[in-house]
Amino acid sequence: MAVETVRVGLEERAYDILIGSGVRERAAELAYGRLLTVTDSEVDERYGKWIDTVIGADSKFIFPAGEASKTPVTVIDICRYAALKKYDRKSCFVAVGGGVVGDMTGFAAAIYMRGVRFVQIPTSLLAQVDSSVGGKVAVDLPQGKNLVGAFYHPKLVLIDPQVLRTLPEHFIMDGMGEVIKYGCIRDAALFETLKERGSFENLQDILPEIIFRCVDIKRQVVENDQFDTGERMLLNFVIHSCTS
Ligand code: GLY
Questions:
Q1: Please, which pLDDT band fits residue 238 given cuts at 50, 70 and 90?
Q2: What are 92-122's pLDDT values in tens digits?
Q3: C-alpha R_g of the chain
Q4: Residue 240 pLDDT > 60
């Protein structure tokens, strides 16, 4: 599959999602002012050199991998780091990582100087098919997950299926849960394909198409219900409050 573009049509908040092997290299062309890359310790181990070479960010903020880092304190640390390095309102934060990285970078971008641009380069299957699309950014509190956050959309999402090849298995498992969910809620043909192929390994030759299909389903849902008051709840299998 050549590089495919999914345009999320949200008027002044509209943005492109590019999907294709090698598409992460387009990060070298980002023209959004100074770039601050945010990533976690595991992703930095795998992609730190690539980040330094291709994104060429003059600064990189790395936090310890895992949901335990997804706190207001880490977000303020990102903002404090940006301030220390004198990032201004024309800057752009670049999230390279899974859902936790995307959520925190997006939330930091939403509040730093009352909002700077951000770009998502998701590196887990879950982030590629779900969390990097739709603008939900948040952190957890001891009282619950995602209790503090915003709807804040990226300027661009670069989805490169190649990065999934080096991923530990548990990052594939939770992402496949989401892929199967899209089949269940919106795409019987996708569900049949998943059943026929039977495993993630057997999907390799059509993985970009599968990701494209999931992202496009999510696009439709987000366009219909950006602020999660009706149809979008279906993505969390909350069906009782969906409007028709
Ligand atoms: N992950 C569900 C949503 O974005 O609404």
A1: low
A2: 999 999 999 999 999 999 999 999 999 999 9
A3: 17
A4: no
Q: How far is ligand 1, taken at its centre, from the CA of residue 56, in Å?
A: 31
DSSP-derived letter for residue 33 is S
User: Residue whose CA is closest, atom 2 of ligand 1?
Assistant: 235
Closest residue by Cα to residue 133 from 39, 3, 220: 220
What separation in angstroms does the CA of 182 have from each of 23, 172, 178, 191, 235? 23, 15, 6, 8, 8
Question: CA–CA distance from 24 to each of 21, 79, 119, 146, 157 (Å)?
Answer: 8, 25, 11, 27, 9
Which of 130, 214, 229, 234 has most ligand 1 atoms within 8 Å of its beta carbon, as the pocket-test mutant? 130
Closest atom, ligand 1, to C-alpha of 233: 5
Query: Per DSSP, what are the bridge partners of residue 15?
Result: 8
Q: What's the gap in Å between 62 CA and the centre of ligand 1?
A: 25
Q: What is the pLDDT of residue 1?
A: 66
